[in-house]
Amino acid sequence: MSINDRSSRRRRGIAWPVGHVLALAPVDVWVRMIVRSGGVRPRYWLRLGFILITSFVGTIATVHERVVLSLLWWVRNKKKRRAGSPSHQENQIEHEPGAVVIVGYYRTGTTHLQNLMSCDGRFVTPRWSQCLAGQGFVFGWAMIRFVLVPFLGQTRPQDAVGFGPNWPGEDDFALCSWGGCSSIPGRFIWPSRWDDWKRWHGLEGLSDKEMNRWRSLMAMFVWKITRGKQNRDRVVLLKTPSHTARIAELDRLFNGRVKFVHLVREPGAVIDSNVRLHESLAGHLLEDGPDVQTLRDRIVEEYAQTETKCCQEAEAIGSGRFVRVRYQDLRNDAIGTMRSIYGTLGMDFDERAQASVEGYLGQLGAYESTKEVIELGEVTGNEETIKAEMIERYKLDAEPIARVEIEHVEDESAKTWRGIGSGMLVAIGCIALWLGAVWAVHSIWPGFHPRLIPAVWVCGAVIGMGARKAAGNGSVGLGIAASALTVFVVVSVAFPVSVINYNFASTPGYTTQDWLYHNAKYGFEGLRSVASMVFIVLGAVTAYRHGVANDIPIPGRPSKTDPKVHK
Predict the structure, then answer these.
(1) First-to-last CA distance in the chain?
(2) Are 136 and 144 in contact (CB under 8 A)?
(3) Model's pTM, two decimal places?
(4) Which residues of the chain have pLDDT under 50?
(5) DSSP state of 163
(6) Domain containing 536: what range?
(7) Helix, strand or coil for residue 494?
(8) Secondary element (H or E) of residue 123
């Protein structure tokens, strides 16, 4: 089925909910985006409704930190103004170790390079749990990591690249979820408003207020991810395709303490891959998408403009702060290419960094992505001209460096029965703690009769993680067992919770059968409510997700092959 056929079919029916890319953006941000984009048609209301539910969760989890940090930042800037600092210095990033920014248009391989560089413990890079809720901070991000587990797979929807709450993320999503300061809404939600939202891509055509908001949020986000004793001494590592068109502004924002790695790739592959990216994320749209040719032409135009702006602004950056790398060289010899990048930027690719990168690549194995046959649009004469210019400019037709193989480390097979046994012990502990909490709350406030059904979500996470850790790796059988144990926990506490809260039919004259019947009836009535069923499903799914998780290595985390890389 072609992309046009699929688009036509989607236009005829209801747009079903998805785990949306901006699901955790605050409600007020969503309201502003909806108003700016002209509203949402009725057939997308179900999808929008689900988004607003998850948005409410993101709002509640982060509102206190968002308000407090905004006030503190306002006070900080006010003190700077009183001290006589120029207005353009109010939002400069004052992180002494500086930053490295990976640039390159969408689908040029920047995620792979970010993952490789994240293996080096001298860098701190934002994680997806932070980027998908940029408005949060310590408590909010911890909650978001927990909340995201049931909704995120282990790989991205558009390819087989690792993905999850703890994986390196794109800061552009953080600024979008925090304040709508991104081209993402016009790219993946309201494509009819492409030109309006595109202003954020290269920070061109913005009002002074909008520009200051972007600068402020960017500075605050970097400040947040560099908090903590370890992170204060680490170099910030950022990656966002739109940064390719923001080099001059980023240089100003970091006051010259920033270096750039520009990744380039064969332009035909980049354009085709971008068309596929938009198709894979079509379920996130809140309006009918454009035809494939319109989409392709937009991508070609923006791609050309972005790379041209990058080259122009890079001329003002010293050679020791800017390095260009071909994707084919990075794929063929990651270690050699990394050593070259570090050397050009005046950094040391030491043994520890190399061992960490090799450990990550060894566990990762060969990258394979099955590509569905879809309509990609017609290649126009303008596109051919642009591609030829890029190939010549970046010498993409030159012979790539020789391929160097990395020894693959086989995953351990899961010890499922040991994991199930551990999950059972954790489940028993969950039951004891749940009943203890209900008894404590009811004892302190006798008029309050808590069931604490949301605790099943926590139990699911703990059971799944405990089972997987004992098993050594995840498996489908372990995930099913963890999910079943989670349901067992909530069912098991239903009757004793009823007894603690009410102890129905405990007065003289009632039989034991009456006592059993009434307490059981109350207990299981609590499980049948819509809210209870939602939390039970979330708990079971969370347990399953943790139970099936395999050892796809997360960059920046200790490797099996070298557990001493990061301390």
Answers:
(1) 51
(2) yes
(3) 0.85
(4) 1-4, 6-10, 559-567
(5) -
(6) 416-548
(7) helix
(8) strand 123-124
